[in-house]
Amino acid sequence: MQTKVIGTAVLALGAVVAVLGLALMAILGPDGRFTSGPHPVDVDGVAVVTAPTVISWKNVEVEILAELPASKPVFVGVANSVDVQAYLKGVRRLEVTSFETPWKLRTRQAAGRDALPGAPTAVDWWRAHSAGLGGAAIKTRLPDETVSAAVLAVGSSNLRGLKVTIAYGLQGAFLKGLGLMLGGAGLAGAGILARRGESLWETDEATGADETWEGDESPTVILPRHPKVQRIAPHPASTQSAAAADADEEDTADEEVHEVYVYVDEHGVEHEISAEEAAQYEVVDQVEQIVEAAAPAPAPEPEPAPESESDEPVTYFWVDENGVEHEVTEDELHEFELYDEDES
Amino acid sequence: MSRALRTAGVVAFAVLASGTLSGCGAIPQPRRDVALEQAANPTDVAEILGRYREVRNTAISLLDPKPLSIVETGPVLAIDTGSFDVAQRLSRTQPEDERQLQVTSVETPKFSQYPLWFMVTAFDPASRVDVVQIFERLTPVDPWLLVSAPQTLPSTRLPGLRHDGDHVIPVAAGNGKGMSMSPQRAAASYAKALASMSGSSAVARDDFIKKMRTAFEQANRLEGVRVTQTWAAERVEHALRTDDGGALAWVTLLRLDTYTVQPGIKVSWPDGSPQQAFLANGISGSGKLRYYHQVLLHIPGGSEGEPRALGHYGGVVSANTQAALSPIPAPGSDPLSPSDPFPIPGASPGQTTVPGWPNILPTPTPTDDEDSEDEDSEDEESDDESED
To answer: Which of A21, B177, B299, B376 is the most exposed place for a label (fewest CB within 10 A)?
Structure first.
């Protein structure tokens, strides 16, 4: 149930990411940018500049193309607003106070002289700049600082007839969109698998069945662990109704787990050791054995004693630490723990 | 689905996702604030210092101060020009290996408007002193120029400067918050302490003040010679906040020494001294020597600390003499009066000093030449008049 929920969530996330990637590719196109223009700008001065609050994004790839008729010289640049404002202080200029995409401007005219304090090409603080006859274009990524864009007349020229084209986008946007789409598809696929209850990887049990353990050739300090599960409660094998499940649960509660630690010496002989002693060794193998307790006979019908066994003499052996068996009499039997050979 | 296919799918997904997310830092996003801030960036600073060194070395190798006007301005240019002039007259040259300033640190404050400036600490192997320079750009169309360069002894430790991120914090001239006085008031108090040793002082009477006063008193002991000295502080343009809450201020002081010599006596200076370079014929009658002194002043944080000079750079920037019998100029027309503005930097020679201002004393000698007038002083007067 939980796997299905997770699978559904991953599927939904993958679908959203894929749609985002697809949208990015569709909107920005193969060149990864959105273009607007050319737009005529009515300017009666030598400068058009954006106010510091207008460009409020960072890491956007911006392209600005300024065109003037009659091959008039023009300059386009982007720089820190402190530099641009100080540079254009006292210059008659058109200041763009707000801008909305694709092209909605609010402007104000600032009075001043019709001359720049110095040639814009002569200063060194432009982050990106370009000058040309009849047109100039720049392409730059907006930095994490307050910047302004400026279109300036060069020399004794003016900006009458100015047309501006802008483009903005994200570098490598198409590839990023493609990556998002494929990544989203991958996520969605993983979600579908999870919903089906299939695991992305094969489990250890499945892989372990094919594999064989080469074994440790070292003859010493090998400690297999043999947890024995002995069912104590009687199991009603004949139950067929819905009560069987309840009975199973009860049986599980009656299960008793015995952990036996065995040390195998260099001769391959097993020696039982305590848990404290086992802690000093490296566990190299764990073996689980389920030992079914003998089902108690129904009360009304006592189990008949096997006739053949009662006639045969019983021989008891004591197995020493080297695995050597020694015969034990019935009188000595109380000194040992009885271990039925058939159960092993 | 086979294991191999699943593995390939996961790997492809990881590659695509990492490829896409690797550009996350460059994802367009709106900026949180629209702050007007600008500071010299490290690339600019390296370029500015490289250009400064190149021009300075050219000036040294030519023994000509003219190239310095490309990279220096104001009092520091006046002082350096004077030092070159003295070196020229005395034919002193500097070994090439001693010309290279070794920059040890650069600190750039942020500003919301022009002028912009930054601080450079460098070791001068020629003088074996540390130079604490200020480079400034007045307007966006001006170049970066050296405007102040007080020198400290290598053993002098400058107070730590307080930083805001990567930038140090400038202090306005009139801002005395957290200090016993503002940088501007500290500059005025320091000038006052230099003018007189008597009375209480708001600043520490450090070695520089003591040496200046000692030299002045010794000059006044000369027979037949009367010397007066005035000090004034220019407006403080550069100060930085220190870690102790105080400020490190670059203060420019103007000093005017006026000599009145009794008839029949001529005051002259030892050969090789900067004053002698300016006044080759000494002073007969009266004469004036003008100095610029740039002082690095530490104003400690808290209300108790007294401002103290950590470094100094200065020298003679102009000199005038007047014969004893010359007509007295009309009030307000004397170009040599203490209230006159100083000449344009670079228009007159000067002298370079290092920490440990030398006491170069004039010598009075009897003379018959009462009409002598120094050649430099004529040039200087005409310059001043044209300024007025």
So the answer is: B177
Is B27 an 8 Å CB contact of chain A? Answer: yes
Question: How near does any CA of chain B get to the CA of A254, in Å?
Answer: 40
Is residue A272 within 8 Å of A228, Cβ to Cβ? no
Within 8 A by CB and 6+ apart from B309, the residues are: B190, B206, B208, B209, B295, B296, B297, B298
Closest-CA distance of chain B to residue A91, Å: 14
- Give the pLDDT band (50/70/90) at residue B384: very low
Polymer length in residues for chain B: 388
pLDDT tens-place string over residues B195-218: 987 777 889 889 999 999 999 999
Q: Any chain A CB within 8 A of the CB of B111?
A: yes
**How many angstroms separate the CA atoms of A314 and A318, rounded?**
13
Residue in chain A closest to B30 (alpha carbons) equals: A57
Residues of B with CB below 8 A from A118's CB? Answer: 140-141
Query: Which residue of A lies nearest to B25 if distances are taken between CA atoms?
Result: A59
CB < 8 Å to A54, chain B: none
CA angle B52/B57/B62 to nearest 5° reads 130
ipTM of the complex: 0.76
**Å between B4 CA and nearest CA of chain A:** 10
Nearest chain B residue (CA) to A169:
B28
Residues forming beta bridges with residue B259, ordered by sequence position: B227, B287
Of B181, B179, B70, B171, the residue nearest B117 (C-alpha): B171
Residue B167 is encoded by which pair of tokens?
């930038």
Q: Which two tokens stand for residue B184?
A: 């501007």
- In chain B the first and final C-alpha atoms are separated, in Å, by 96
* Chain A CB contacts of B115 below 8 Å: none
Return the residue of B nearest to A85 by Cα. Answer: B113
Is B151 within 8 Å of B305 (Cβ atoms)?
A: no
* Average pLDDT over all residues of chain B: 80
Spatial distance between the Cα atoms of B160 and B244, rounded to a whole number of angstroms = 8
Compare CB distances from B113 to A82, A172, A201 and report the shortest one's residue. A82
What does DSSP assign to residue A210?
H
Question: Shortest CB distance from B20 goes to which of A146, A171, A180?
Answer: A180
Cα(A66)–Cα(A77) distance, integer angstroms:
10
CB atoms within 10 A of CB B86: 23
| Interface residue B34 vs chain A (CB under 8 A) | yes
Residues A292-340: pLDDT tens digits? 655 554 545 544 444 444 456 777 777 777 878 888 787 887 777 776 6
Residue entry with tokens 């020493």: A320
Strands A223-230 and A256-264, bridge-based pairing: antiparallel
User: Per the structure block, which two tokens stand in for B180?
Assistant: 């016993």
Residue of B nearest to A193 (CA): B1
**At a CB cut-off of 8 Å and minimum separation 6, what does B332 contact?**
none
Beta strands in A268-333 (DSSP E): 270-273, 283-286, 289-291, 316-319, 325-328
Closest Cα of chain A to B241: distance in Å? 22
